[in-house]
Amino acid sequence: MPPRSNPTARQARLGAELRKLREAAGFTTKEAGALLGGNQAQISHIEAGRWGVSATRVRQLATHYEASNTQLVDALCAMAEERGKGWWEDYRSALAPGFLDVAELEHQATYLRSLQTVTIPGLLQTADYVWAIHNGRVPRLPAAVTELRAEFRLKRSRILERDTPPPFEAFIHEAALRMRFGGREVTRAQLRHLRDVSDRRTVTVRVIPFTYEGFIEATQPVLYAGGPVDELDTVRLDSALGGRSLYADTALRKYRAQFEVAEQAALGAEASLQLIRDIEKEL
User: Fold this and answer.
1) Which of 24, 32, 91, 103 is deepest in the core (most CB within 10 A)?
2) Whole-number percent of the chain with pLDDT over 70
3) CDD domains in the record, alphabetically (predicted)?
4) pTM (2 d.p.)
């Protein structure tokens, strides 16, 4: 089987975690390849996500590496055994890989936390709000592309309607609530939707008010996706130039700390809902 030319972010993540285990054990790729009865290229392809690897081989490598974190090894084996195709795969030839990576990340997360200062989190956006955001891009996208991206974003929100949805905590700056993307009526409807989804037991919306006098270092949307173990958490950063996923230990520590700051800065859930109501009435 030829190597994958474009591994998904999840496939690349599995390979990256296996590389961490190998490096921590002090093995070279040549030595690791020999453990599997192969060569250096085999390990390089696996660690880059270009080749699939079975759970049996993951355990074999973990044993040779003397990996002591059994929960992490079990989680990596589960990743290796994933075979089902998610709904986002239907868009693989139509959208850039980054769009699909976000949908897969959300789908696999055990919990989600979002921090945004200018726009409403994608999972909580209404259809009209989504259209307003995409129509404001420069240069303007063709109508067909806008329609496809809007459709995809709205489908992502269905994870919150699953029988067992991942808990989702959204920290939204008051500035984002007052932005009138699409006009007053679109904004009012978006604020009503925020209040409605907050009634779900797994969704929490907390607002960081203008009165907070500290600094929140979130100049771009931040999505923190919890993994089955802490080591498999992922941070997703999005910008006008594209998105990127971070999972180095230092990055995870930094953004965990950032959300701790957001927790201190934000109003409680009930006070946040009241502020949303007040802003809605002002429009």
Assistant:
1) 32
2) 97
3) HTH_XRE
4) 0.93
CATH superfamily of 9-80: lambda repressor-like DNA-binding domains (1.10.260.40)
Class of residue 260 by CB neighbours under 10 A (exposed 0-12, middle 13-18, buried 19+): exposed
Domain limits, the chain: 9-80, 87-282
CB atoms within 10 A of CB 63: 11
Answer for the pair 84, 104: CB distance below 8 angstroms, yes or no.
Answer: no
Answer yes or no: are the C-beta atoms of 76 and 18 closer than 8 Å: yes
At 265-274, the pLDDT tens digits run 999 999 999 9
86-107: b (≥16 Cβ within 10 Å) or e: eebeebeeebeeebbbbbbbbb
Phi/psi for 173 (5° steps) reads -70, 145
Task: Tell me how far apart the alpha carbons of residues 90 and 111 are, in angstroms, rounded to a whole number.
Answer: 25
Residue 158 φ then ψ, to 5°? -65, -15
Q: 87-282 is classed in which CATH architecture?
A: 2-Layer Sandwich (3.30)
Residue 117 to residue 126: CA distance in whole angstroms: 17
| Residue numbers in the chain where pLDDT is lower than 50 | none
136-141 long-range contacts (CB < 8 A, ≥24 apart) are 136/181
Closest to 172 measured CA to CA, from 218, 130, 135, 138: 218
Q: How far apart are CA 20 and CA 26, in angstroms?
A: 10
- Single out the residue of 98, 118, 111 nearest to residue 160, CA to CA: 111
